[in-house]
Write a structure and sequence with these properties.
The complex is a heterotrimer of chains A (75), B (258) and C (222).
Chain A lengths: L6 H6 L4 H58 L1
Chain B lengths: L1 H7 L2 H32 L14 H28 L2 H33 L7 H22 L3 H34 L18 H29 L4 H11 L11
Helix pairs in contact in B: 2-7, 3-4, 3-6, 3-7, 4-5, 4-7, 5-6
Chain C lengths: L1 H16 L1 H22 L3 H23 L1 H10 L1 H7 L4 H30 L7 H26 L8 H25 L5 H30 L2
Classes of the chains: A mainly alpha (75), B mainly alpha (258), C mainly alpha (222).
């Protein structure tokens, strides 16, 4: 496999395994974080917006019902 | 071309255009990163001095340059915001700070880890690590300032001023730290870039990883900027429409990036 | 030019009316410098090695801590807003305010430094270069601190935010300031580094008032 004699040699990285792989692991952490955090924030925002709209809709409906009752009483 | 740039300063068009670009960007970035990393990790010869450890450089070097570029981009956006009052510029600048911070942290971590076998210690006050540490402080400072302001508009302007003050200082800081380092460390061969005796094929994968990481940087910025657009423009018609047509009553969605 | 003189006179008068604001940062400097031998031991050789650095770092911290008196009082009683609206050339007024602040907070440090430097066993050849470096460096620190202060004066719980913002920007001044002393102790020429510091001072004189004015406008509009 490439310049390494075997896959276990590749993992061993000539004795530097802990350094090389911890560096690459942190690299993966950063990659994942930079995608996961904005995606999570977006989902949170969308949930919030939907809830807000639902609350608004319910309030409108309640107001309309009240107005309907007043109109009925008036007419 | 200028028209296209002007379009980008409108949140709606930025959102639309970035939404169309994203799949391509993701595809190209993934290809570049996979090629570069596989090549760099498995198919290049070991360094004559550092053995296999130098492979960390494939990540460390682009991370550090991109972090630096990120600071300059943040300052450029700050200038655009202050001078021409382009709100879009502030949204991009706001995205630059956390992304820049993570890339700086990556550069610092990989640099430290590289240093353990090379210098025998995980931290060393060499010019590059020290300058990068200071840049981390600068990014954190901008983020701290923005969160300290309750008013979004005032916070945006304050961060813009701070970014510009910082950008004037970045070259001065770099120069001073390099000068300080040569004074105190002497001309030792502990430089991370001492690979001139190596064959050029070692650096070819670096281009792939470099461009790939830059593509990823753009993705990170665009993702955060799009969120910021949705939040700030949530009362406009086009966002309203976007939310209701795409997501309707579906709360738990697996929605794409468009 | 008379606006500078008038502002200077007024600011100095106000400063001397509350001597605590002048004395306290100096006392901080004095006490903090004295903490170092207590912390690292009284070995004279070792102290002489760190003397320049200790003096510079504590001076830098003292300047930063004294920044609070620069705009806060004016902000709280509304005169800052009036200042921004006045027809006076703001650039020079700001310069004069910062200069008067330096005269009561930075300059005393320059004068006190030799005493404490020799208490830290700094060799005699280093004392004059140290004073020269501080003389050029402390105005830079004051001006950068003023930028940070202008950005945070309107915030209610800014706490140590000023430190987070400003200390990274202080680093070049620190590096070159201690470099002057190190060069002198090694019998090398100090003029180059002093010239660099001088260039930074001029750059700060030209640019920081602009940043301060922009930041003050933001803070006042809160």
């Amino acid at each position: 496999m490439g310049r390494f004699d075997s896959f276990s040699d590749f993992l061993a990285m000539g004795g530097y395994a802990s350094y090389v792989w911890s560096a690459y692991a942190f690299f993966v952490v950063i990659l994942v974080f930079n995608i996961w955090q904005p995606v999570l924030a977006r989902k949170k925002f969308l949930k919030q917006q939907l809830r807000r709209e639902q609350v608004q809709r319910e309030r409108m409906q309640a107001r309309q019902k009240q107005e309907g009752r007043i109109n009925d009483n008036a007419s | 071309m200028w028209q296209w740039l002007f379009k980008l300063s409108s949140p709606k068009w930025f959102y639309t255009i970035s939404g169309q670009l994203m799949p391509w960007l993701i595809a190209i970035t993934s290809i570049l990163l996979v090629i570069g990393l596989v090549w760099g990790l498995a198919f290049t010869p070991p360094d004559y001095q550092m053995g296999e450890n130098y492979r960390i450089a494939y990540i460390h070097v682009p991370a550090a340059s991109i972090a630096m570029g990120c600071y300059y981009m943040m300052a450029g956006m700050a200038a655009a915001f202050l001078i021409w009052r382009i709100k879009m510029a502030d949204m991009v600048a706001k995205a630059c700070a956390p992304v820049g911070m993570t890339f700086t942290a990556l550069a610092l971590f990989t640099g430290s880890v590289w240093g353990i076998p090379t210098w025998g210690t995980w931290w060393i006050w060499d010019a590059r690590l020290t300058s990068t540490l200071i840049m981390l402080f600068l990014f954190i400072g901008v983020m701290a300032l923005r969160s300290a302001y309750d008013s979004e508009a005032a916070g945006a302007k304050a961060c813009a001023v701070l970014s510009l003050v910082g950008v004037v200082n970045v070259p001065i800081i770099k120069y001073s730290v390099e000068w300080w380092n040569t004074l105190h460390q002497g001309a030792s061969s502990l430089s991370l870039s001492n690979t001139s005796a190596n064959p050029p094929e070692i650096w070819l994968p670096a281009f792939f990883v470099g461009f790939g990481l830059f593509g990823f940087y753009l993705i990170a910025i665009i993702l955060r900027t799009r969120n910021e657009i949705l939040i700030r423009e949530r009362r406009t018609e086009w966002v309203d429409e976007l939310l209701s047509t795409n997501f309707g009553n579906n709360i738990s969605t697996n929605e794409g990036l468009g | 030019m008379s606006i500078i003189a008038a502002t200077l006179r007024r600011e100095l008068l106000i400063a001397f009316r509350s001597p605590g604001e002048i004395i306290n940062p100096l006392m901080f400097f004095v006490i903090a410098v004295s903490l170092f031998p207590l912390g690292v031991g009284a070995n004279q050789e070792f102290l002489s090695e760190i003397a320049a650095g200790v003096i510079w770092v504590t001076a830098l911290l003292a300047v930063m801590l004294s920044m609070d008196s620069l705009f806060r009082a004016d902000y709280e009683d509304g005169s800052l807003e009036q200042l921004l609206l006045s027809p006076q050339p703001l650039y020079f007024v700001i310069l004069a305010k910062v200069a008067s602040h330096w005269l009561v907070s930075g300059l005393p440090l320059v004068i006190l430094a030799p005493i404490f430097a020799s208490m830290l066993s700094l060799p005699a050849e280093g004392i004059l270069p140290l004073m020269a470096a501080l003389l050029i460096g402390t105005p830079i620190l004051t001006m950068l601190g003023a930028v940070g202060m202008a950005l945070t004066v309107g915030l209610s719980k800014s706490g140590l935010l000023l430190a987070v913002l400003i200390l990274p920007l202080y680093i070049p001044v620190l590096v070159f300031g201690t470099g002057v002393v190190d060069s002198a102790l090694n019998s090398l020429a100090t003029s180059g580094l002093l010239a660099l510091l001088g260039a930074m001072l001029i750059l700060a004189l030209c640019l920081t008032p602009l940043a301060i004015i922009a930041a003050l406008r933001i803070s006042v509009s809160l």
